[in-house]
Amino acid sequence: MKLTKTLLASTALTVAAAGVSAQEMSKDMTIVSWGGAYQNSQLKAYVEPYLEMHPDVSVAWDESSAEAVAKLRAMNEAGNITWDLVDVTAASAIRLCDEGLAMEIDFDDTLAEAPDGTGAEDDFGDLIVSDCFIPQIVYSTTFGYRSDMVPEGVEPPSDVCAVFDLETYPGKRALEKRPLNNMEWALYCDGVAKDEIYDVLETDEGQDRALAKLDTIKDQVVWWSAGADTPQLLADGEVFMGSTYNGRLFSVIEEQDQPVAMLWDMQVFDLDGWIVPEGLSDEALARVKDFLYFATDTQRLADQAKYISYGPARESSAPMVSQHAELGIDMAPHMPTDPANAGNTLLYNYEFWADYRDDIDAKFQSWLAQN
Amino acid sequence: MSTLKGSGPQTSDAPTPEDAFHEAAALDAREGEPPHGSGNDGPVLAADGTPLKRSLARALRAQKMRALALIAPLLIFVLLTFIAPIADMLFRSVENQIVRDTLPRTVEALADWDDTSGELPDNAVFDAAYTDIFLAAEYKIHTRLGSRLNYELTGVSSLFRKSGRGLDDIGEVYLDQLEDLDENWDEALPWAELMGTADSVAAYKAWVEAEDKARENDEDFNDPIPAFEMRDGIADVLPRTAEMYSRFAEFVRVEDEDSPFEEEPWTIVLTRLYEDLRDGDVSSYDGPRAEMLKAADELVDSPDFQTADLKSTFEEIDEDWMDLAVWRTIKTYSPAYTSGYFLNAVDMQKTPDGPALRDEDERIYGLLFKRTMFMSLVITFSCIALAYPVAYLLSTLPMRTANLLMILVLLPFWTSLLVRTSAWKVMLQQQGVINDVLVWLGLVDDAARLVMINNQLGTIIAMTHILLPFMILPMYSVMSTIPPTYVRAAKSLGATNWTAFWRVYFPQSVPGIGAGSILVFILSIGYYITPEIVGGTTGTFISNRIAYHISSSLNWGLAAALGTILLAVVLILYWAYDRIVGIDNVKLGG
What we know:
heterodimer; A: 371 residues; alpha/beta; D-Maltodextrin-Binding Protein, domain 2; 2 domains; ten-stranded mixed β-sheet; 10 strands; 17% strand; globular; B: 590 residues; mainly alpha; MetI-like fold; two-stranded antiparallel ribbon; 64% helix
């Protein structure tokens, strides 16, 4: 009896020693994302395939990406990190990395190479904006308009300044209830050259100038705070045009077949991707790394574009972008990064907004609150 | 007996121990008069011989403890999960230790600086800032301080972020020259030998050998690296270097979980070494690595040796360091507690001349507080107006019909708040149900549809609907206890319908209105999700800003200050209500 036990124990030990890497990974993983169509694209493109390969692993979702920085900070203060992998925008990632709440990633060590052997770091290239941030997609904030509400005899808008042109294009606009992007568009349409926008916006006069420009359309604006608002407002015909994330507009246009068209001019590029919280246990970290290696490889990022019209962050993924999984239409022309769409674009200025957000936001909110 | 606090039915009920207690006290007070039932003079005694007063007090105490034990689970639960977090959050509205904790030396050095002098702080302050920010950057806490101070002065956020990286430049000037002299200055082990005890260095070397051997033999080797210990004498030879190196050693051990034997020191250690060599004398030093140190001393003393100027390095990193406002902000916010968040919450800010109102285009909180109050009042009154007839009807109808109506009142209660709010969106928007009906009826022109949402009106309509049950239920429970005979009696004595209602019925229903109003008003003053969805820009409440500061701008101090003010306002209003109407007049039921 005793002998059997010892034998069994030693066998178990041998097995454990043989499969060290598999044994040391935790069995469950909490992934934080945005919910909605975007989270669904992640689920379909790499979470479900990963779970098929590892049937013993379970994944829990937490749709908290919008408050990720606040919650991670609170978790860190409480000394109890309950998330394993967090999907955030680049601006949040930079902040988390600066504060030591996100782990620094060695791209070449942790992530898969491109099919042609290019290292991950080169493959992601310029999109690596922080040491802690693994970009997944390039998305843009841009305008959509009701094609059936364009006045007769007028060309459909092709210039972002149509937003401020109430005479040619009457009707309500939907803009986001925060200064980011709106201030840039306002200055641009007030005649500021694109490369001088942030120099102007730094000054009090520049901020007043942008607000004055926004004043011209203020009573025609519906302010949104959730990404789903503008698509709904457009679908209901509540507004003539509105800004939102390009993926949301894609689903209004292609999936819901609404009479809405894209206005790509001066779209503002931003990145979304993963961070790994600092302070994970070794087992959790091993699991997360294993998952990341799979989920951010070239094929998986290209697959994600089958479900949502955001551009994959790897250069090597771009040529592999194929057709929509259900509609069967080519996705490439719907990508914000497609040359036809990316003629005139702006890149989210992380550093500027890190500094000026508090200040400009105070002004902007005060301006909003006054009638 | 009547000395018992409070009023209510319990005074007339069976005697309680407290009654007996008071009786005993009264008896006790009657000096001289022999108490009945006892043959002795002096205090009344209980059966066991102790004075009755004491034995009663004991019984009473036991009873109180039992009562406390019964409510203890709830009390502890509420304390831990409700009161404590709220208190903690409110505390953040004045807490400001971050500046002091992150920049301890700078704060101390700045104490001597006159911020009205118009001159930059002296080199001692820059040196303190160099040490503080360097350490903060290693611990990755400098950007958090940057964002904290950025609330007060725009641009500090990037200033600290850049400085965290840029301050390595100072030490690198020294590192480069010393490295050219002797490569060992950029190696981990020689530094450890210079700074550490001979024993710990020997232990490390033995460990390295053991590891090499294990690797050769392909064995597992999991022994931890031996601990590093600072040598006692080194602080006399190189005081500043030793101090900084021991900070480094501790950091490497605790934060990196590594060892100073394997990590080359921070660049700031080189700066300190330079200063020690410049000011001190190492010629008598004969410990390990003496030659290396003496050669460095010679180099430092030679005229060719380049030094880094602190101020100009700071200026190179960012010219904002030459801006007095930055130093003034650090000095102003250096105390551990600040009124800054509260000033901010009432649209004011700290200036060198004391608190002053913010620029007009940055004021917002006063407006939002006023709006929150005003709209909560409007919502409360519209709830009263709508709920009164419904509650009256409920209380007068026969039971069966009343129950059915009651279910209709409660139905919205069982529906998700978000669903109800979104439903109002569908109803009220310009292409919504109400506008469509009005246009179809021809009452409104298609081009001039009513704007009923994304403004105050939308918030008022949606919140009135959502909070209506909170008004109807207390009103109903009070009204259902008003005997119908009173109104009949009034009428039979010649009162008109109106007089009977206004003089007889209405005064009896006031407690229900009071209870409902308090409920609705206090609920609405802190409402968040409905104003966020249907409020647009003119229909949002202060709570929306609080939520913004908690989750987006991460200015928790300001959010806490706003929350504290909101809480104080509610308490003051409650107090005023108690003074004017009397809280005894509030009834949630018969």
